[in-house]
Amino acid sequence: MTENETSVVMLGPRDRLIGELYIEGNLRVSGTLEGQIEATGDVDVTEAATVKATVAGREVNVSGQVNGAVTASKKLVIGRSGSIVGDVRVPRLIMQDGASLSGNVSMGPKVAAEFAQAAAAEAAAPVEMAAEQPATDGETAQEKAKPKKR
Amino acid sequence: MDTQHAVADTAPLEAHEDGVESRRDGSNKITLGAGDYLEGKLTYNGHMSVQGQGQAQGEFRITGNFEVSNGATVKALIEGSNVTIKGDVEGMLTARDKLTLGKSAKLNGDVTVKRLQIEDGASFNGHVRMGSFEQSSGS
């Protein structure tokens, strides 16, 4: 998707970001992050990181603490020291022994199709349109993805 | 002791007696294979395994490990120590120790676990609750 120049944002252990971040590229967090982040590339949350934010990326790796919803358009890996408290929406999920997760998990072909649709919409429509589209689509699909039995 | 009776009462395994084997170490095991079908409530002091194209439906409370192999289908409330899923499972699931989803696993339902491992390729939809088992899992 981002064959052209990709930026990389790195937040060191003493760095802190509070607010909203959108980058066309990769993000690597070792510090504190609060708010909302979206990366078109990969997101790495290292062991030292504390994230209280909604996280969206292509491939998301979590080895630290994340408090917030996580969305990955390709896959999410939760390492053995990783912890997520929040809802997870991914086509593929890998969770290593020792990792911790509390929240709703939605995954599988349905979610993958939805991301593909969002990507297609993004390719066809201007950026602002594309930003709107997946949000509304996501809501309805999440309803369907919920287990019927309680 | 009671659980032994419960097994006899609730598990319609008459056609597959060889599936129930007593081990010398005292841990029992129920194995459902291809063509086997179990429906009902089972409280069992031992391990349970659904293999091949085996099917099971109902409510299974197992003191030992619960295993669903690739190709097997289970629609049930499941409670076990170590739960390993490589097949198709629908229902509420509690693993007192660890839940493992293999690459061919398909799980739909809410889970309460102490530890959770998910391999690439597994599919899971539901809510995850992790932590201690101080609260009764009946809720």
Structural features, described:
The complex is a heterodimer of chains A (150) and B (139). Chain A is α/β, with parallel strands linked by helices and 150 residues long. Chain A has two domains: 7-106, no CATH class; 109-145. Chain A is 23% helix and 47% strand. Chain A has two helices and twelve strands. Chain A has helices at 109-124, 127-145; strands at residues 7-11, 16-23, 25-29, 32-39, 43-45, 50-62, 65-67, 70-78, 83-85, 88-90, 93-95, 100-107. Chain A has a six-stranded parallel β-barrel with strand order 6-7-9-12-10-8. Chain A is globular, with a radius of gyration of 15 Å. Chain A starts with 6 loop residues before the first strand and ends in a 5-residue tail after the last helix. Chain B has 139 residues and is mainly beta. Chain B has one domain (2-125). Chain B is built from one helix and twelve strands, in the order H-E-E-E-E-E-E-E-E-E-E-E-E. Chain B has one helix spanning 2-10, and strands at 20-22, 28-32, 37-44, 46-50, 55-62, 66-68, 73-85, 88-90, 93-101, 106-108, 111-118, 123-130. A six-stranded parallel β-barrel of chain B has the order 7-8-10-12-11-9. Chain B is globular. Classes of the chains: A alpha/beta (150), B mainly beta (139). Chains A and B meet through strand 11 and strand 12 of A and strand 11 and strand 12 of B. Strand 12 of chain A pairs antiparallel with strand 12 of chain B.
